[in-house]
Design a protein that fits this description.
Blueprint (H helix, E strand, L loop, with lengths): L5 H9 L16 H11 L7 H12 L20 H11 L5 H9 L9 H6 L19 H13 L6 H13 L12 E2 L2 E2 L4 H10 L6 H14 L5 H11 L6 H23 L6 H10 L36
Antiparallel strand pairs: 1-2
Helix pairs in contact: 1-13, 2-3, 2-4, 2-13, 4-7, 7-8, 7-9, 9-10, 9-11, 10-11, 11-12, 11-13
């Protein structure tokens, strides 16, 4: 356990009496901050046992009986927290094969055989990943979370996981990084974003695909001067899973210092920090990274990832 205990103390103090955490103090439970806080406090399981037990029980209130998890007061179709819950429970030694099997059945919608759509996109709209909500298109973040959770649960070679891997590689920039979905919108190039890029790297860890290598380079360079806690934490957690690259290893100590400085500055100023930021800071500053996977990389053989069309520079002002 790190001597930098502040975020752990905050998480313990801010837990809801009935178990779990909201996004901010005074808010009711939400599944995402509860999962992140559980992962952080699980690094000290004996000391935090009562808090962990209450939070795990609180998560189960939102199980829908079929293996999926839906926030009771949320949109019924929003099943995206399921992968986070599966990953969290697996890390805590409570792998739920029923939830894993059910998650494998969730499919994002595809668009097939529409030449007009094909002309508008530089991604393959027939790739199948995971959506935020049932009956909608596949997106990068829910797909990355599903792959990560299913790999942790022992399904690394399942065809759905392999296909999800192809989707992430298809949507990643050859020059490095990934956006939330499309590389282009209305013929304008989007920009990669650190958060989705880190999640993609966590999902695809172990891979030496060129777009995975480029994503590491993009992430290192982009966060080098950042002070945003979430971007820094996700970058540290992701790059830590690729220790074979000496440039990643060299970047990790600096990321630790950036994280500590950013966290200390924000807490000293008295600004409220979200539960997610407390938890991600706690996770990123530990030597025991729960996002590291023991399983081998997902096979990427099979249906080839189509080559990307040439990437044009963004049109000035469009995304400003």
């Amino acid at each position: 356990m790190s001597a930098f205990r502040e975020p752990f103390d905050y998480l313990t103090r801010l837990a809801l009496p009935e178990g779990g955490w909201g996004y901010h103090t005074g808010q009711p439970l939400h599944l995402e901050p509860t999962c992140f806080a559980l992962l952080a406090l699980a690094l000290d399981p004996q000391r935090q046992k009562a808090t962990l037990d209450r939070a795990l029980a609180a998560l189960e209130v939102h199980a829908d009986g079929t293996g999926l998890y839906r926030l009771l007061r949320g949109r019924p179709q929003a099943i995206w927290p399921t992968a986070m819950v599966l990953f969290t429970k697996t890390v805590l030694g409570k792998t739920d094969k029923h939830t894993a099997t059910r998650l494998l059945e969730v499919r994002g919608q595809t668009i097939k055989g529409d030449p007009e759509v094909g002309a508008m996109m530089d991604i393959n709209p027939e790739r199948v990943g995971w959506p935020w909500a049932e009956g909608t298109f596949s997106w990068v973040e829910p797909t990355a979370w599903a792959i990560l959770a299913l790999r942790a649960a022992g399904f690394a070679t399942h065809p759905r996981v392999i296909e999800g891997t192809h989707l992430l590689l298809d949507r990643a920039f050859e020059t490095g990084g990934i956006n939330y979905g499309n590389r282009k919108v209305l013929d304008n190039l989007t920009e990669p974003i650190p958060g989705p890029t880190a999640l993609m790297l966590l999902a695809l860890q172990g891979s030496d695909e060129p777009r995975v290598v480029a994503a590491q380079r993009y992430l290192r360079n982009t966060v080098a001067t950042m002070t945003d806690l979430e971007h820094l934490a996700w970058a540290k957690l992701a790059l830590d899973c690729y220790p074979h690259d000496p440039e990643n290893l060299a970047a990790l100590p600096k990321l630790d210092e950036q994280l500590k400085a950013a966290y200390t500055a924000q807490t000293a100023e008295g600004r409220p920090i979200s539960i997610v930021r407390h938890a991600l800071t706690a996770l990123a500053l530990q030597a025991n990274n729960p996002f590291r996977l023991a399983s081998e990389a997902v096979p990427t053989t099979g249906a080839a990832v189509p080559p990307a069309k040439p990437e044009d520079p963004p049109k000035p002002g469009f995304f400003e």
